[in-house]
Hints:
Blueprint: E1 5-18, E2 21-33, E3 43-44, H1 60-73, H2 75-84, H3 91-99, E4 112-121, E5 125-132, E6 138-142, H4 147-156, E7 162-165, H5 169-178, E8 183-186, H6 188-205, H7 221-228, H8 234-250, H9 256-263, H10 267-274, H11 279-282, H12 289-293, H13 298-306, H14 312-321, H15 328-334, H16 336-341, H17 354-362, H18 370-382, H19 384-401, H20 408-416, H21 421-432, H22 434-440, H23 448-463, H24 470-479
Parallel strand pairs: 4-7, 7-8
Antiparallel strand pairs: 1-2, 2-3, 4-5, 5-6
Amino acid sequence: MSGRAHGGYRRRLADLAAAGQQVVIELLVRRFLCPSAGCGRRTFVEQVDGLTERFARRTPLLRRSLEKIALALAGRPGARLAAHLSVPTSANSLIRLVRRLPDKHVGAAPRMLGIDDFALKKGHVYGTIILDMETGERVDVLPDRTADTLTAWLRAHPGAEIVCRDRASAYAEAVRTACPDAIQVADRFHLWKNLCEAVGKCVAIHRSCLAEPTEDAPADATAEQEVSGRPEGMRVIRRRERHAAVHALYDKGAPIQAISEALGLDRKTVRRYAHAATPEEASLGTGSRRYGQVHAYSPYLHRRWNEGCTDSARLHAEIAELGFTGSKRTVRRHLQEIRASGKPAPDKPKALTVRTATWLITSHPDNLDESSELKLKKLLSRSPELDAVAAYVRSFAAMMTERRGSDLESWLTSAEGTGMKPLRSLARGLRQDFDAVTAGLTLEWSSGKVEGNVNRAKRIKRDGYGRAGFDLLRLQILLAD
Length: 481
């Protein structure tokens, strides 16, 4: 205790607003002399509990409120909201408040972990979010999605018994290395997504069955090509040449990046050709969205064609007034088959698109109306191959919804023996991750909570507008409400 006053000074503290007005608390502070000769501090000032902190210019109540605003809205949006609430501050001050928050301490890992990646810069840099699946609490955020980083984290935080993840091989390898006794659970959403992608490729291979047959139509795609007598297009030739060039290097063990630099192609393009057994398979699922838009205007285009207007530029101008945003080339390509056939355009095209046919096959029967059910029935009656694919989809859906993971082995064996290459490829991929897929089709756990937090992480990332580093993003993800 000391009763010797050394001096005093005035201290001003910003506080929460009252009735829409800024509030400033002004204190008259006394500084006392320390009577102990052995003390290194000669003078001291006592703090008022709950009101003052050393060197602070805000009350603890205002500081905590600004921290919540910064965690929810980041810098500039948070500063605009704070000014509206009559507690003005700058974006940099809010960011500094977040950086000074204590980091979350992680001891042993939770018993049930959820792991997923999210894009820091899509296509280039990815991070990893780790979640407690029982409580939904965010445990940690890692700066990349490599197996080495996750392995080091799991070894530093032992205790995980069940790990929910997507089909990423890096995460599977890390869990096997760091905690081999843990049960890996493949996410059911990603399993169904993989199945839908395989079905889409099967439909694309049999796209000739999508159109309803007419009396004067050829029996199959081969007959149609013989009747038209059209030569191969430049796209087909270029696709075949690229496929051969990529495989000439890929089959010798060259990495994707080296092939990309040698051929001057994008890495995604090289990967697509490298993983495709044939040039035709490499083209599946690469159609233009704008080219798909023109099908909505097909009835108008075909009617005008039959009326005698065959100028694609003029037709493009007419449908552009109706809302079409594609190019003249798109319209010209759409009318190319009609022009080459020399026959009138059909009044109402009846061909399904690959996307629509895939949706019909993979949708729950209760979600289809009478018209969709009729379209699906006609499609499967025209194509025995797609009928078999639909049977595989139904059996997989029953296995997934009824949690019958024990039936996976028989499903894979049957799919591997089918003549559909996309289904065989899917079966091989699932067999490589057999234990995790079986657990995903058996246990109740899934990665739904992790996906929800990934969406939140993307929102937080966009709020930063790219100006903040990983350390700030990590704190915002972990500490946000």
